[in-house]
Amino acid sequence: MATRRATVSRRTLALGALAALATGPGTPAYASGRHHREMRGVWLATVANRDWPSRPGLPPEEQRAELTAHLDRAVADRLNTVIFQVRPTADALWPSPYEPWSEYLTGTQGRDPGWDPLGTAVREAHARGLELHAWFNPYRIANHTDPSRLTPDHPARLHPEWVVPYGGKLYYNPGLPEVRRFVRLAMLDAVAKYPVDAVHFDDYFYPYPVAGQTFDDDAAYDAYGGAFGDRAAWRRDNIDRLVREVAAGIRRVRPGTRFGISPFGVWRNAGTDPRGSDTQAGVQTYDDLYADTRTWVREHWIDYIVPQIYWNIGFPAADYAKLLDWWAAQAAGTRTRLYVGEALYKAGAAGQPPAWQDPAELSRHLTLADGYPQVRGHVFFAAQDVARDPLGAMARVVADHYRRPARPPRRPPLSR
């Protein structure tokens, strides 16, 4: 209770700071230099060529130039961490003995691009003083449902019993122990080969719900779910096992490498669970993605968490301010670092609420977060939006909060 009162008090102070920024000039606390260590990150997405490379099939020298341009932009904006998506769809952006080269490089899955993107990214990021976090999607196989479009030696074709089609995509079944073992080996291969600073998962575990469709894991549940009261509890245990096993594997393969996860921003609504946030979100990670993100933080199964709080301050169903307060309370007293995922891609985007048409909205997020000592920085989605910045929202963040460089947070104690 004392922790909760302290958090609310800090929120009150933060709201006062926010009001001051909105009503008059001043120097935000971030610009004062007292936060000499904080996460200033950007996601660099490769799935569907979202951020990089700009299109498949570019010559290696052009792909390298585009990649280093994103790194240079991160330095120019005084960021310090790039979260690079290296396994977008059960494929690889490094020479993997387990999975094929990504089609997003050459246009053809399995074709050697003639260079090593992950190796280059690690080397070039470190040369610029940036951390490089390797971003993996554990279970997504393809953004279609046709296995014949995969390479003939793709593990999903060799083991069709591992595969579940759902919502127009193919997924590995998280309920199979052999699947968890395989995806763990495939991801840890990169950790063993490259001095990445962290392993990073996004928000995809069990897939987001699709109306009228059922994720068919009946056979796996019949085989492995007998000890659980219901299928939901079994599914959550499957994801918990993946998280704990990957954490242990990282410690074994490259001690000192961190492990972070960026979940959807709502664990549970308070209307579902009194421990949840004051939100009315249509998706809850605990119930819909079977990801018990709150437990991962409180038990320190991961070294950092980056909840995707992708809504504006005052958004009725999921208010950024309320979610920031809730996540700060969950991280309080734990060894799990809290960073906040920021929706830069919404700034100026058509169809977004009026708050996102204001270039100062994101800057207000950072001002508000500065009132919470649990918040150790922010990560922006995503690199192409940092580069283009059509509304000037990122430029405003840099001017208000990133006037001086900052080192990444110190390495926390290794997870248990």
From TrEMBL:
Keywords: Signal
Domain Glycosyl hydrolase-like: 38-356
Pfam families assigned: GHL10
Signal peptide: 1-31
Statement: the UniProt record of this protein carries the keyword Repeat: no
Highest taxon of source: Bacteria
Keyword Signal: yes
Entry-linked InterPro entries: Divisome_Glycosyl_Hydrolase (IPR052177), GH (IPR017853), GHL10 (IPR003790)
Gene3D superfamilies for this protein: Glycosidases
Protein name: Glycosyl hydrolase-like 10 domain-containing protein
